[in-house]
Amino acid sequence: MGATPLSLIPELEDVVQRGSRAKRVETLRRVTTLFLDGADRYSNEHVELFDEVFVLLIEEIENQARAELSSHLAPVKNAPVKVLRKLAKDDDIAVAGPVLKLAARLDEADLVEVANTKGQAHLHAISTRQVLGEAVTDVLVSRGNRDVARRVADNRGARISEKGFYRLVKRAEEDGILAEKVGLRSDIPAPIFRDLLTKATAVVHRRLIALATPEVRAAICDVLAKVSEEVGARVGPRDYRAAQRVVLGLDLAKKLDETTLAAFCSEGKYEETVVTLATLAKVPLKIADRLMDGDRPDPILILCKAAGLGWPVVKAVILARPVGSGTSTQGLDNAFANYGRLSASTAQRVVRFWQRQDA
């Protein structure tokens, strides 16, 4: 048994130097069978020899043969590591996928390199591994698409760093399914869990409570109760009287325009921002107050379109809301697209309807 791999050397030399592509594939299959038949008995030296043989043979052969080799070697505990690395870095996911999902001998550095340089299919394959370290999941939640992020959050064998959890929670603002998966992880740090619940929708809250264990369910309800108490204590009726005097003076001096509104937003003058928006959109102050305090930017888009405001100041108003700091880049992109689709006539009709309802 010990000399069996060595008997391949003369044939290997002939195949590599003079063999056709078909001959390489035939020899690769024979060598693969030989390795698999004795893998659990081979010494490290024999495995290293097979490694050199495999690396030589997979040059200049079609993807199908490499994919076949990848499928055979991926689950083998002592598979040759050089050829595993070469297969993992293959651009064809059919070749790279099996070893990225299963090969135990790929270390964290190998996975980080692939995750940093390859596409979403490779990242998704990595995200399904039974065990993942923080360095790998940091890259996956940073570069991965929605499916990759969800798979990482759902993978109980994946260790996630504090930075990784913060990124997942940020992405979860636009993805209720991801919010559920992150919220059900037992290893999420308490402050980040609180942040997730604060930003999640009521639908996500109900889903988390329904799916959670009794202990987690109690924790969720406790956090939500505390958040409600704090919000109730912090948010009371706003006093707009001083802001109204300022805005009225500017309006009488014919200096009230979107430039003024943008300045109020950038200076953090919330009351002046709301009063100015109400004045420019010609709606009662209490309507503007209620809409600015909402979770979604859509009503603000309607007010701004009715007032004829440009996108830069609209964006500033969206970010000036109490929940504005949590608006993601994707959320702003969606708002920009919706603002472009919204016509002034439609916005004005909606504003007139709000005014009638208020009256």
Question: How would you describe the overall organization of this protein?
Answer:
This protein is mainly alpha-helical and 359 residues long. It has a domain at 241-358. 71% of the residues lie in helices and 0% in strands. The chain has 23 helices and no strands. It has helices at residues 9-18, 21-38, 44-57, 63-73, 81-88, 93-102, 108-117, 120-127, 134-143, 146-154, 162-172, 176-183, 190-199, 202-211, 214-234, 241-252, 258-266, 270-281, 285-292, 298-306, 311-320, 329-341, 344-358. Helix 2 packs antiparallel against helix 3 (44-57), helix 4 (63-73) packs parallel to helix 6 and helix 7 (108-117) runs parallel beside helix 9. The protein is elongated. The N and C termini lie far apart (93 Å). The relative contact order is 0.05.
Entry summary:
The protein has 359 residues and is mostly helical. The chain is built from 23 helices and no strands.
Largest sheet: none
Low-confidence stretches: 1-6, 231-235
What level of helicity do the residues show?
over 70%
Specify the oligomeric state.
single chain
Structural class: mainly alpha
Order of helices and strands: HHHHHHHHHHHHHHHHHHHHHHH
Shape: elongated
Q: Termini, distance in Å?
A: 93 Å
Task: State mean pLDDT (0 to 100 scale).
Answer: 84
What's the β-strand tally?
0
Provide the gyration radius in Å.
Answer: 30 Å
Number of helices: 23
